[in-house]
Every structure is written in C-alpha cells, then in structure tokens.
What we know:
Blueprint: H1 2-14, E1 21-23, E2 29-31, E3 33-39, H2 43-54, E4 58-65, H3 72-85, E5 93-95, H4 111-117, H5 139-150, E6 154-158, H6 163-171, H7 175-178, E7 181-185, H8 201-205, H9 207-215, E8 220-223, H10 225-228, E9 232-233, H11 235-242, H12 247-265, E10 273-274, H13 276-285, E11 290-295, E12 297-299, E13 309-311, E14 323-329, H14 331-348
Parallel strand pairs: 3-4, 3-6, 4-5, 6-7, 7-8, 8-14
Antiparallel strand pairs: 1-2, 9-10, 11-14, 12-13
Helix pairs in contact: 2-13, 2-14, 5-6, 6-9, 11-12
Calcium ion (CA) binds near residues 44, 68, 69 and 277.
Amino acid sequence: MKILIYLISFIFFCAPGFAENKENTNGTMEKKVKMILDLDTGIDDALALAYALADPKIELIGIVASYGNVTTEKSAVNSLNILNLLHRKDIPVYIGADKALNKEDVFTVLDISKHIHGENGVGNVKIPESPRTAEKQSGVDFMIESAKKYGKDLYIVAVGPSTNLTEAIRKEPELKNMVGKVVIMGGALIVKGNVSLVAEANIHQDPFAANELFISGTPLTMVGLDVTLRTLLTKKETRLWRELGTVSGKIFADMVDFYIEAYNKSTHELKGCGLHDPLAVAVAVHPELVKVLTLHMQVGTDEKDWGRTVAITEKLNDPDPNVSVCVDVKVDDFMKFFMDHLTALFKAN
Ligand code: BDR
Ligand code: CA
C-alpha cells in the first residue's frame, strides 16, 4: 500500500503538466512563472508556443486565440494541433476576439499574412489533428480569472493584435496592476514597419486597441521589430531539427523552411526569418537579454500614421513611463536558449 501511495505521488508530481517548480543545478528550487500566451497561430507563434513549453522557467497555463495571421478559429485549431504534436494535451485553449475593436466587418486574412504563414497559418504543412476543441469560457474572462487567481505570479505575453488584452483591461481595469508582467510582440520604434513604412503587423491589425493599451498606464514591455529582426533563424538550424528524425522535428523544420522562403522573397534583405514571437516569450523570463528605453508611448490611428508606435513628445519628461521598449538584444545568448530548448523538445517528441 505504502509503495502504491509513493508511486501515485511520484507520477502526479513528475508528470509534465504538474511540474510546477524545478531544481536548479546548484540544488535550489526555481519558481516557475505562470504564463498565458495570446497567439494568432502563425509559424512564429508556433515557435513561441514551443519555446514556452521548453523553457524551464515557464509554466504555460493556457492559450488565448486571436485573429491575425489566420482567423481566431483557425488560430485555436493550430494551437491545439501543436499542443497535441508536443504531447501537451493538458494545456487549455480559449477563444478570443475575432476582429479589431472598431471593426464591423468580418475579419479577412491579409495577403501578406498568407504569404508569410501560408493559407493554413502553419506553412501549408499538415499537422495531425488534435482530438480536443477550445474551452467554453472566453479568452478574455480566462485572462481576468487567472490574474485574480495568480496575481504577480502571472505573466501575459501577447504576440498577436492587442485586442484581447485591451478588452480584458476594459472589463477589469485593475488587471494592469494585478499581474507580474505584460509583454507584447509588436511595433517598431527605430526601424520601419513590415506591413507599411511605419507599421508592424500586430499593431497594424488593431491600432486603436494598441493605443488604448499603451496609454492605459499598464506596465508593458514592447518587443518590436527593433529587436526581433536581429534574431534570425536559417535553414542551418532547421536542418538540425530535421536530422533528429522525430515527428515534431520534421514538422517544425518544414514549417520554418516555408517561413524562411517567404522572408527570402519579401523586401527585407535579411539572412533568415525573424524570431518575433519566441523572442517576446524569452524576454518575459530573461529580461537580461534586452536593453530597453522606458517611454510614454502611443499608436497612430490616422490614415497617414496608421499603426505607428511612437513616444508621446509632450510626455518625454513626465515621470514613470509605462512602456519598456526593447532597443537592443543579446542575439547569441537568445539564439542559444532558443536552439537548446527547442532542439531538446523536438528530440523528445
Ligand atoms: C508579427 O506579425 C505576425 O505575422 C507574426 O506572428 C508576429 O507576431 C511580426 O510582425
Ligand atoms: Ca504572432
């Protein structure tokens, strides 16, 4: 009987979904951060999801689906399929907003998104279908409920449009002070945009939501193109995943090769694809990877500056700026975290 109890507690505490804390190499316990990912899944969103599962500092407690690279419905399905592929059926997926705040029309996927992420969002690669479906509770309510439950232990990382976050703060204004961290992938302070001269894709989708989030005073980290276009992945790395000989290694290599090809054809003359979304997840738990400028920020909503993320001139000398804008990144350190964690994950799946 005693042996049976030991066995049950061993299985319970050692199962991946229940692994709350992990022992450091120096023998001390490291507390994991609870994380919600808001994804418009998307190839680099899939990489962000894989990174969150693989970094020992993170306990992913749920995913909120957003429109963006694909529709919200497709984003949820893609996330469920990736979780299934990586044997993490314990992580729930919730449905978020299906279009921008001020939009009346049904959301349609932009041609540029199809070009970068494929018609199905995952590089037209076939991923085995998950037997699970999304949860009944709304993504916005899940964010609020989790903020109340976990407080400062909760980090929210949104790597699609800001619509869900802004709706959550509208519904529960205290959310911005409750949680430990809010990180977004979006915007461009120093470099030009990727869908227009001034706008980055996530902010371009819903500049009203992003502006409301920026000026709400929410302590925010902005991981924009200024840093994400420095962290590039090439076919040299995807070959390593393919050579693992595992199902997930092959699927991720196929997806990312599609993404790299799309980057090769696009106007950015970069030698690889931008690791936008996984960098945002990594920065949330490894802030030492980046240098930031703290600013009061706003987002343009006029036709000429639609989606432009810029500091508020009149507030340059005001105290307590709420947005930490990442302006430099330790590329080699991040690439090492990224490759070490993801290769280990794909080797095991
Ligand atoms: C961002 O836009 C989307 O295409 C990517 O998933 C990323 O979140 C980069 O501008
Ligand atoms: Ca994204």
